[in-house]
């Protein structure tokens, strides 16, 4: 009963249009950054290594390597601070979580590209 009431309240906060992306895809996440009284949009590009949760609680983890240092950020999918998610490439994976990429470097981090109707090739 409590979950039904929570779902009714959470429906108003869900985003209407969420792009299709899966674990292994390379995405650009545009998020709002507040500095003092100013707001700007910053793009974080990387590989989606995990997705979890459902509905309003859905989050995804994006990993990239910057200055030879691995950087991971966890984004709530329906957050108002996440302006948009733009899928760039689809990766061919056989796992739900790609935590093994943390131990790899160089060419070992690259995933094979998937060629399906959902893949966005640019």
Separation, N- and C-terminal Cα atoms: 46 Å
Q: Helix share of residues? A: under 10%
CATH fold category name: SH3 type barrels
How would you characterize the largest beta sheet?
5 strands, antiparallel
What is the CATH architecture descriptor?
Roll
Question: Widest sheet: strand order?
Answer: 4-3-2-1-5
- Average pLDDT over all residues: 90
Uncertain residue segments: none
Morphology call: globular
H/E topology pattern: HEEEEE
Please outline the helices and strands.
Blueprint: H1 2-10, E1 26-35, E2 38-52, E3 59-66, E4 69-76, E5 82-89
Short descriptors:
1 helix; SH3 type barrels; 7% helix; five-stranded antiparallel sheet; 122 residues; mainly beta; globular
Short description:
By secondary structure, the chain is mostly beta strands. It has a single domain, classed as SH3 type barrels.
Explained architecture:
By secondary structure, the protein is mostly beta strands. The chain has a single domain, classed as SH3 type barrels, CATH 2.30.30. The chain contains 1 helix and 5 strands; from the N terminus they run αβββββ. The protein has one helix at 2-10; strands spanning 26-35, 38-52, 59-66, 69-76, 82-89. It has a 5-stranded antiparallel beta sheet, with no helix packed on it. Strand 3 (59-66) and strand 4 form a beta hairpin.
């Amino acid at each position: 009963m409590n979950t039904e009431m929570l779902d009714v309240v959470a429906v108003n906060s869900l985003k209407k249009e969420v792009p299709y992306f899966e674990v292994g895809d390379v995405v650009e996440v545009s998020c709002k950054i507040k500095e003092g009284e100013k707001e700007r949009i910053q793009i974080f590009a990387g590989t989606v290594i995990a997705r979890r949760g459902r509905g309003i609680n859905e989050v995804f983890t994006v990993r990239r390597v910057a200055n030879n240092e691995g950087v991971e950020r966890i984004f709530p999918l329906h957050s108002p601070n996440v302006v948009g998610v733009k899928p760039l490439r689809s990766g061919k994976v056989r796992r739900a979580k790609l935590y093994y990429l943390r131990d790899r470097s160089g060419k070992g981090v690259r995933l094979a590209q998937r060629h399906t109707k959902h893949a966005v090739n640019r």
